[in-house]
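Model it.
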Amino acid sequence: MKIKTFISDLSLSAISAGFIAVLVGYASAWAIVYQAAIAAGASNEIIESWIWALGMSMGLGCLGLSLYYKRPIIIAWSTPGAALLASTLSGNSIGEAIGIFVFVGLLTLLTGLSGWFDALTKRIPLPLASAMLAGILVQFGLSIFTSLQSDPLMVGIMLVTFLFAKRWLPRYAIVAVLLAGFVCAYSLELINLQQVRWSLATPVWTWPEFNLSLLIGVGLPLFVVTMTSQNVPGIAILRATGHNQAPVSPILSWTGGLNVLFAPFGAFTLNLAAITAAICASEEAHPDPDKRYIAGVFAGVFNILAGICGATVVSLFAAFPAAMIAALAGLALLGIIGTSLQSTFEQPDYRDAALMTFLVTASGVSFFNIASAFWGITIGLGTLAISRVARA
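Modeled.
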């Protein structure tokens, strides 16, 4: 890519979308990652190494893939995977945990090289993929108003700012919301900057130990959870935002390769992002879809900074009030929620199946440690098959 082209594509809205994606990702899910590290018996030095490994691997993935494909491709950790690890790693050694991380990275790499996952997801009709996406994101839209109830002044100012900015400065609506939320939270003394501590993370190498029972009992479920609850929605994001030609298999291969490379430092599992990818792929990032890759590039930059700064960044994100983060995420996702719902119900032949997909996904049900996104698309495809048999 020519440097002049990249510079001409730069926009404040896309850069801020990348920042908001990283802010939302760390602020909303780092606590779960921390619990997983504690369950594995990690010391403070190793926990900071996990921050470094995750930030660097996610950042390099976002930056490199977004630049290469000119699409906002966001690589993230698996939050459901972290929750699974938090409940299963207790009593095992750090080396055994690292062995699981390497194992899952290798499985992801093989999945990408084989191409079977790409072929499978192409068989999912767009209305069902959009329904699954809407089911995942709708809770974030609702969080605007639950946050409004808990903190009416701050969230109310953010909401009014969003409505006016969408009318007069649509490209900078989320930037305006971020600034309004920060100023309001700071004025109300809701941001506790005293808890921020300044330090850089130091990577710590841990040799992997491969325990067959743990690889089967924890590694395989971690791989399945990541594929079904993270990568499937991540692919749906790309396709719902007009990036139908994004090559899934090479992206998964690079994701798996980065996972293997950084696993000894604590990168437990990497995947295509869903929620944060939606922020970077929305109209709020840039009206021109071909220029939204800038949001992905800067999500990579901010992730790398988060990894290098380690504990400082985590404590900084923790200083923001939860209501502000929830409202910010919900407002940033409103556009893509609306687009997904429109695509979900516009084709009558798919309407019943899409409705089932949406409701099951939005319900949050989980069976066998597999998240609702997988069950939503499975039940939706079953409903579609039955309806076609009935019509025949």
